[in-house]
Structures are given as C-alpha cells and as structure tokens.
Amino acid sequence: MSAAHPGPGDYSHVPNPEQALKYAIQHIAGPRVEIIEGVITPVSPSWAHENAIDVIREQIRPRMRELGLRSGSGNLDLPGTANFYQPDLAVVPAELARASEGALLPDQTFLVVEVTSPSNADTDRTVKRRRYAQYGAPVYLLVDRRERTWTLFSQPGDVGYTLVEGPHPFGVRLRLPEPFDVELDTCEF
Q1: pTM over 0.85, yes/no
Q2: Per-residue pLDDT tens for 48-76?
Q3: Is residue 69 in some structural domain?
C-alpha cells in the first residue's frame, strides 16, 4: 500500500514551511517580491516612488560615508513570521552590506524607509511599522505620498515605536536622529 500524497495546501510534510517559503521568494520568485503577513506581494515602484527614495539617499550619502554605512533595498527577514521584506531603502553597516549574500534583520539597520504606493499604503502605515518596531529597526521613516506627509518613528518596542514625530507635510524639514544628525529637505518627496 502506498502512502497518500498531500493535497493542495497541506504543508505538514514540509519540515520548515517558513524557511521553504522564504527560500522560494529569494531564489524562484524574482528580485522584487516580499512576503507580508504570509501574502506573496510583488514590488513594482513607479518613477515618482523611486524619486522620493533617491532624494533621501542623495541627502544622507555624505553622512553615511562618514559613518561607514551603505544603503540599498536588500532583503530583511523577520524570523518566526511569514514576513520577508524588501524595504524601499535600508541603511546598514558597510561590513554587513559587503558580507551578506542573504537577508539581514531589521535590528541590523540604522534606518529603514518605506514610501507608500497606492497598492501598499496601509501596509506601510500599519503592518510594516509594527513589525519593524517588534524586530528592533531603530528608525523607521514613512514617506506617505498619498497624504503628502512624512512620519519618523524611533525607539522601537514590542508594541510599536515609542517616539513618533509627525505626520508632517512635505516641505517641513526632517531631522534624522543620531548617528545621522542630518536635516533633510522634504520638498521633493
């Protein structure tokens, strides 16, 4: 008698479904895909979206170089959850950026930036904000293009960020906390 094959949706035979899903996302699904609360989500930013990221990157680049940091949109894993993010911008130590072939953890970042799009605004405002805090991302900058505001979250904890600055309208200058200690012009967000 042969063993019954598992049916669709039966993953009980997979030793670690979280690892299997995250492996598939990294190696099969393509370079611009996230898992948000277990939902595989393609990422396809517009030019306006990319412009906001570029404006931030240009303004923090000199300070990043002084501090030995690098920026990019590399993968961030949230172990123990069905979450695997590709932030719009993350700032990490240069040695981690050079050495890591896989995902980093949010607590290994100095800054995470998400820019809302029509398809993901609520996710960036709530789910990612909560998860980044739970996983220790020290500073989370939300650039909300629909509301035309920015909000800076810092001092992460299990239930969220304990320090919130904003929302402020685009045009109000933004001071990033230490170690950056730089002021950003937000007019072009």
Answers
A1: yes
A2: 999 999 999 999 999 999 999 999 999 99
A3: yes
Domain interval for residue 100: 45-184
Checking phi first, is residue 120 left (phi over 0); if not, alpha (psi -120 to 50) or beta? alpha
| Cβ neighbours around 38 below 10 Å, total | 11
Residue 38 lies in a domain: no
Residue 47's alpha-carbon distances to 44, 51, 54, 113, 155, in angstroms, are 10, 6, 10, 16, 31
- 8 lies in some domain: no
* CATH code of the domain containing 113: 3.90.1570.10
Sequence letter at residue 19: Q
31 assigned to some structural domain: no
Q: In what order do the strands lie in the sheet with 76-78?
A: 39-42, 33-36, 83-85, 76-78
pLDDT tens column, 26-37: 766 666 888 898
